[in-house]
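EI: anyone free to look at a 325-residue chain?
SC: sure, send it
EI:
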Amino acid sequence: PVVRVVSVRRVFHNGEHNAFTDLVRFQGRFYLTFRSCPDGHMVHPTSAIIILASDDTQEWKPVHRFRVERRDTRDPHFLVFQDKLFVYTGTWYSGTTTLARADYDLNKHLGYAAWSVDGMNWHSPVLLEGTFGHYIWRAAAFGGKAYLCGRRNLGFEITARGEGRKVESLMLESDDGLIWRRRAVFQEIAGDETAFLFEPDGRVLGVGRRSGNAQLLRSQPPYAHWDRKDLDRSIGGPLLAKWGHHYLVGGRKNTPAGPKTSLCWLVDDHLHEFAELPSSGDNSYPGFVELAPGRALVSYYSSHERDTANQPITAIYLAELAWTQ
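SC: here you go
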């Protein structure tokens, strides 16, 4: 389909660094989540997860906000599972102040959740059993189970580091969305942010960020073996979703003009870009929800606008899309 970007608008900015979005429809309402931090992009114990709700995608109101003491909350993602709305966040241990990059340690990572049965009353922060030492990311559900991408140091090696080649990516599985266990290893080295999409027969498609080009991943139950194929670009904060019968891939791409938030169709294992959203600097990490046949909404963050003092801001945006066949 030929896609038209109908509109792009800023929906949230509070003077802080706002980033890492996701979007979902739950019980007839729309929900938008992201991280907000007064101290910026990196690892700070001052960060919080914010959840907004809307009846019409036009007016958004806060319904929940949570922090984890001495931890940096980031990368929130939604999952509708067992008639509950979950928001998952990976958290770096930072102590009482900003953590130096040289001291990042995946072994101290821990997943947390907020969850609600009505979108208004929330339980949080809830520690996710089985996620210590794992950097959790996007979630998906299939066949009465919930699944998370979780990356960890190989052998939980005790060396202070952030992310790199000595990191493996796991598919974590849960019966209740709160207690997790290992289901499969799908990247033995250089594991990173990965989005899963389950087909009706249980086959799973994934798009995984890598240090070079992103990879397309495939497996089928019991997910013991994975096929991998390099894509033609790096994808930061990958999104993978179905829009109608078509596969949508989004995320940050590198260009001569700097990083941009890009949206593509995935056709025959190749990406076909259909939109580059207004973006620059620190940006990407999109969320997606289909509004109606041929209409959709994408959330993302970007630093392309400036405040009254001509300083760049990092804010949350919504892009409305429409297609013609």
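EI: Residues 164 and 190 are 6 Å apart (CA to CA).
SC: 👍
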